[in-house]
Amino acid sequence: MVDIRRPYKCTARIALPQPYAEHLKDVISVDREISDKVVKSFSILGHDGNDDDNDRGVVGDDDDGSGNDTMRVLQIIFEATDAKMLRVSISTTYDMINVALRCFQEFGG
């Protein structure tokens, strides 16, 4: 159902090893949006993009060949009053994600 007050919507999903997904969610969800014209919601899903409460989204085999057997999907839902505000929020969030992932890589997240 589309909220008439925020008809513009975008869902982004990023697959990451479990600890990175959890840390990234904590890092980027701290700051409020500058404008009340945009709302973001965050959730952690299983590797296949489904929210499965039974196994908390843990994948038990080495799907990506990295040796890490617990992948998660960070899902971010953006809702905005207009297309420009949606674009600005997505762009800013992706910039924050990029910085956070570089820090994780450099300092061992």
Automatic annotation (TrEMBL):
Q: Where is this region: Disordered?
A: 46-69
Stretches with biased composition (Acidic residues): 50-66
Among InterPro entries, the record links this protein to: CTAG/Pcc1
Family membership, please give it.
Belongs to the CTAG/PCC1 family.
Q: What is this protein called?
A: Uncharacterized protein
Its taxonomic path starts at:
Eukaryota, Sar, Stramenopiles, Ochrophyta, Bacillariophyta
